[in-house]
Amino acid sequence: MAFRDDLSTTQQFLLSLLCFPLRPFYLCCLCLTDSKESKIKPHNLAQAEAAKVQATVNQPQTTVVTGETRFYEQPSAVASEPDHGNRVTVEIHPRTTSQIGKTHFFNRGTQVFPDLRGQDNEGFQDDRDQQPSLPQGQDLPGFPDYEEKRRSLPDEQDLHAYPWDRSNLKSMPIDLQQFKNLDAYAAKVNTRSNVEDLVSVLLQEAHSDLEKVRAIWIWISHHIEYDVEAYHDESKIFCKPAEVLQSGKSVCAGYSNLFEKMCSIAGIQCKNLSGHAKGRGYKPGKVFRGDSNHAWNAVFLHGRWHLLDSTWGSGYTMDKFIFRYNEFYFLTHPALFIAEHFPEDYKWQLLKPTLTLPQFERHIQYRSCFFARGLVAATPATAVIQTENGKATIVIESCRPTLFMSALNKLNENCLIMLQRNGMKLEVYPQQTGTHCLQIFAKHFQDMKGSYNFALECSLECSSVDKSISLPKDLIYPVGPNWFTEQVGILKASPPGPVIHTDDGRCAITFTQSEDLDFFATLMSNNSRIPEDIRRRHIWKTRQGNQAALKIHLPHAGHFALSIWAKKTSDPGGCQCALSYLLSCPNKSVAWPVFPQTFTNWEDDYELVAPLAGVLPANSQVQFKLKLPGICQAYVKCGEKPLPLTLSETGFWEGACNTSSGETVSVQISKEGENVRRYILEYKVKTR
């Protein structure tokens, strides 16, 4: 009915006369319309002007005062007034001053919050898919009224689940190379006057929100040390940002407070989080009770919340703090962060579904190196593992070739590591009942000279001991043929398994060797009193072309570690253990003698068929059979006179010798054009 305001007085009078019979009805409609406009107008205006509210607040306006009534010369009819709880106050200014202004209250609708820097903040736009997954009931830094910011939060079902593709360590795609110059710059900044000045200097080279967070993270990780003294004496703890900056040290709460303050100055949404962490003093299976023991942060970038821990990113403590930058704890993927951090508010796990505290307590402790080395998961993934029949089995999955070591109660024994294409399998055989500490270490296979890194730790609860298994202390990991064996040059090794069981004390190993490969083997045992050089003579090596074979005759029953050491002749340095086997023989009657002693003139393509025993019976006729290509004559010597062997049609040198003439028997050869006999083998004659 607002059109009547545009009619002249005469036109309004004529309209009234014409419509006089309808005047009662007209008056009712007029009153009803005015009432409806007065009720609806504020809400419609709020929706129409919501995007302009903050802009008009910040713009200079000219107010004209006429008597007791104020109105704006600009066309806007909405002005912001002081807040009343969870409502917006809107004053309706009529076009004329003849009516009294009416004030209406209504719940806040769609709004656009100003960015802390005075620019559009992506995280606060009305876009449900780009909003932070802030847990309900938590105040956003800088916005004390939760209802005021509720519009910027997603509905309960929109909480980010952060799917993990089992390869990316970060919660957002990041190319660390892009930070190379920024990291170098931030690490060298040494401003300590105040936090504001420090942030100002850092932001000279950091422009995007991600770069600002990175610069702050790098500076804190390289300049704030953990206060070990304050950790033991709470009276010396200082956690205010200014105090942390000036002293250059603090505990975790000081790290997180300083990080939050610097982000706030830089215009970055940041949240201080606290909870339980599997850090200093943690033992697998620990039950967390009481107050939180750690603090970290969450930052809002690219429409999502991301987790980081600048305390653990800066280094570690022994008797003192040691700076050692750890990239893992910067924007760590929530699926990985939960391995060591449990927030007081479950929703700050940023997981779907969330873990309970008992689940966190039961979960195995993955160290940062676990994921940094390309490891994906361990099975079972529990902090405490129960043995079954004296054995515990742990399987680790990896997305890249990795070498492993293990320690049981800090000793490198009673463990059997078997490499797999995508990880490894570990069998542990505790030799005592009770609780044992198992630690696993890992490194990339190309980093042969590098050290192993601590990957995970768990406890073993052993209720019984498997007495049938006693692993040799000299057993070298990994055991059994694997991809690393092939990398060295040992291919198609057989048997394919890590353990060789033999009842008669004899076994054989065959493989195809790569060109230009030298190798030898050793045999070790815990309970053997036989010297090492004699134990090596229980291994007989043959090689025909690229096919190699090892015959093993064990000196007694028990468990033995067979190690094959190899290197390419063109490579510098010594041999490395390329393949290990565990040999198991329960037959206590086994007592095989050594193989004959070989000399340097024994060549790889020579073949000994008989006799294989290096100790011959006395006063006996012994048959000899050998294949010796490239020679012109072979002899067997027992006593003073050598006896020539005969070359058979099958290519073997054969003959017999009586052992009654001496204490040793030797095999000698001569080659074309040579007038000398060369020793290649020697046997001992058993004394009476």
Blueprint (SSEs and pairs):
Blueprint: H1 9-18, H2 23-58, E1 63-66, E2 69-72, E3 87-92, E4 102-107, H3 146-149, H4 180-188, H5 195-202, H6 209-223, E5 225-226, H7 228-232, H8 241-247, E6 249-250, H9 252-266, E7 270-277, E8 294-301, E9 304-308, H10 310-314, E10 315-317, E11 321-323, H11 334-337, E12 341-343, H12 357-362, E13 365-366, H13 368-372, E14 375-379, E15 384-386, E16 392-398, E17 402-408, E18 415-420, E19 423-428, E20 434-444, E21 453-462, H14 483-488, E22 490-494, E23 499-501, E24 506-513, E25 517-525, H15 532-536, E26 539-544, E27 547-553, E28 558-568, E29 576-585, E30 597-598, E31 607-610, E32 615-616, E33 621-627, E34 633-637, E35 642-644, E36 646-647, E37 653-658, E38 664-670, E39 678-685
In short:
Strands 30, 32, 34, 35, 38 and 39 form a 6-stranded mixed sheet that branches. Strands 13, 15, 17, 20 and 21 form a 5-stranded mixed sheet that branches. This protein has a 4-stranded antiparallel sheet with strand order 9-8-7-12.
